[in-house]
Amino acid sequence: MDQKLRVAVVGAGIYGIHHVDVYNQNPAVELVAVCDFSEEIRAKVEALYKVKTYASVEEMLSNEKLDAVSIATPDHLHLEPALACINKGLDILVEKPLATTVPDCEAILEAAEKNKVRVAVDFHKRWDPAAIYTYNQLNEGEHYPIRGYMNMDDTIDVPTKWFKWGNSSDPISFLGIHCADLMRWYMGCEATEVRAVGSKKLLPSMGVDTYDSVQSMITFENGCTWLLENSWVLPSGFAKANDSRTTILTSEKYIRINNQNRGVEMVDSDKTHTPNVFFFNDFNGKVVGFGAEPINDFVDSLLKGSDFLATGYDGLQAAKITAAIHQSLEEGKTVAI
Ligand SMILES: NC(=O)c1ccc[n+]([C@@H]2O[C@H](COP(=O)([O-])OP(=O)(O)OC[C@H]3O[C@@H](n4cnc5c(N)ncnc54)[C@H](O)[C@@H]3O)[C@@H](O)[C@H]2O)c1
User: Fold this and answer.
1) If you measure from the C-alpha of residue 17 to the centroid of ligand 1, how many angstroms do you get, rounded to a whole number?
2) What is the pTM of this model?
3) Nearest alpha carbon, ligand 1 atom 28
4) Residue where a domain terminates, one of 93, 117, 141
5) d(CA 237, CA 253)
6) String of b and e for 74-112 (b: at least 16 CB within 10 Å)?
7) What region holds the GFO/IDH/MocA-like oxidoreductase domain (predicted)?
8) For each of the chain's 337 residues, which pLDDT tens digit applies?
9) Residue 159 belongs to a domain with what CATH number?
10) 280 Cβ inside 6 Å of ligand 1
């Protein structure tokens, strides 16, 4: 390879550190810098990865020559660093959601078009082998989808212990956005209307002012209707930090996915754990799994000039669905998209 892609990561918390790991191990990449507000995280990153760190995106962008940046700041804080990178002419990979509102997503895409840079979104669930199999099954043969069900839930630890920003997001922006993207990808068309109901009781009682759970009915252009359930209040004792299942009924096939139990159980004195062994795994000093693949594919696409597998446009279209869910929750009626 003649020249390495010069990459930086903004936000090296729970998930951003995976971006740091993957870039650090990709031979086509030079991990140039990492930016995080947290002094503790910066010190850890410097010690572990021997990479320069910054507390400010602007300072990093003025000091370093970069080709691309990953943005893994909290859900509601993607816009500002995304625009700063785009305005410097850098291609970006943004963690899901692209942004928490449709106008913010549009602002990112407009700036990208103006600056002639490319935007990818890390909708990593598309890289899950179970999702790939389902996508292929749906696109094979002459059948048509009739009905779908998807849930994606987290344990209550996620909004109450993992994040300091639970108040500023919710199970729809954090989890539902993955589902909205998967549904669009599976269906090959857009959603037309949404009706949602939700409850806000348990988390507010614990000081996190957001939805415990939301149920949404989503209709797609092909007539297929989906029931989507997302919650942030599974009991802490659950076998994994999240639960997820999908069923799809078509005119010829019935597909059921259990994303919760991926076939491995590990019992310790605490409880039975069902780790997602396909997501991230350390093997021979290298991070492997479908969590790493979209980050490596971002690099490949930039080096080869090929299309991203999940684009900024996908981020915008998924955000339209989650925005309609939010609107339906507020107005108590069906919302057309
Ligand atoms: N945690 C998960 O399991 C998970 C999984 C998939 C995707 N994601 C996505 O990854 C993103 C980050 O989530 P997380 O769980 O890593 O959150 P986190 O709170 O653990 O980390 C976010 C980090 O961003 C830093 N930060 C915020 N604004 C910044 C800025 N402008 N400049 C520099 N640093 C900044 C914070 O200091 C923090 O360390 C979110 O969009 C989330 O939806 C998270």
Assistant:
1) 9
2) 0.96
3) 73
4) 117
5) 35
6) bbbbbbebbbbbbebebbbbbbbbbbbbbebbebbbebb
7) 155-253
8) 568 999 999 999 999 999 999 999 999 999 999 999 999 999 999 999 999 999 999 999 999 999 999 999 999 999 999 999 999 999 999 999 999 999 999 999 999 999 999 999 999 999 999 999 999 999 999 999 999 999 999 999 999 999 889 999 999 999 999 999 999 999 999 999 999 999 999 999 999 999 999 999 999 999 999 999 999 999 999 999 999 999 999 999 999 999 999 999 999 999 999 999 999 999 998 999 999 999 999 999 999 999 999 999 999 999 999 999 999 999 999 999 9
9) 3.30.360.10
10) no
CATH of the domain at 42: 3.40.50.720
Choose the final residue of a domain: 117, 134, 154. 117
Q: What's the gap in Å between 77 CA and the centre of ligand 1?
A: 9
Within a domain: residue 292? no
Q: In 3-state terms, what secondary structure has residue 226?
A: strand
Distance CA 337, CA 325 (A): 10
Q: Which residue has the tokens 């096939």?
A: 253
Q: Is the CB of 294 under 6 A from ligand 1?
A: no
